[in-house]
Amino acid sequence: MKVESLQMSFRKFKLLMLPNQKKYYYCIIERSGNRTCIMAPFFMFAASTVFGTVAAAAESWGKNIKWVTMKEAQKLAKEQNKPTMILVTKTWCRACKALRPKFASHPEIEKMSSEFIMVNMEDEDEVKNPDLQPDGTYFPRILFLDSEGNVLTDVYNKEGSSQYRYYYSDTKPIVDSMNEVLRAAGQKVIKGKEL
């Protein structure tokens, strides 16, 4: 299954999910048609060495948003009695790439993020937990948890697909969902608008 490719001079790099395997592989496909596949974690390590850490990747979703790991979020949510907002994204995902600049530059999302514990599970950071996949493993997925760590399955993109309820392609439904969570928690809400 081809996920994304990048044409570079005489080689093509592709991220593939090989049949009957649960690991992604980067495949170098030469013009002759020969294929050399290397496990993605090596490339992810190499890319993080060259381009920065996972924290830097999360920061690209909003540098004024305080991003934490899932493990930290579980502790902080209980301590601060705050809900958690989780973005499940992939660096190769075109929909994620399209949403990232809108999300990162949206003032209401940035302002409301202080009322949430914010987690960006990107690539290998994604926690393999069925609770965080209520209707599938598509990307980007945005989920909300209460302060006890329970997934708020009734908070989803009301303007989106009934098949992919936690998929958001625009910021207005994200702001609406954030406000819904804050209202349920008895906190202040911010009127959402599209920029």
Automatic annotation (TrEMBL):
<feature type="domain" description="Thioredoxin">
    <location>
        <begin position="36"/>
        <end position="187"/>
    </location>
</feature>
<protein>
    <submittedName>
        <fullName>Thioredoxin domain-containing protein 12-like isoform X1</fullName>
    </submittedName>
</protein>
<dbReference type="InterPro" id="IPR013766">
    <property type="entry name" value="Thioredoxin_domain"/>
</dbReference>
<dbReference type="Pfam" id="PF13899">
    <property type="entry name" value="Thioredoxin_7"/>
</dbReference>
<dbReference type="InterPro" id="IPR051099">
    <property type="entry name" value="AGR/TXD"/>
</dbReference>
<dbReference type="GO" id="GO:0005783">
    <property type="term" value="C:endoplasmic reticulum"/>
</dbReference>
<keyword id="KW-0732">Signal</keyword>
<dbReference type="InterPro" id="IPR036249">
    <property type="entry name" value="Thioredoxin-like_sf"/>
</dbReference>
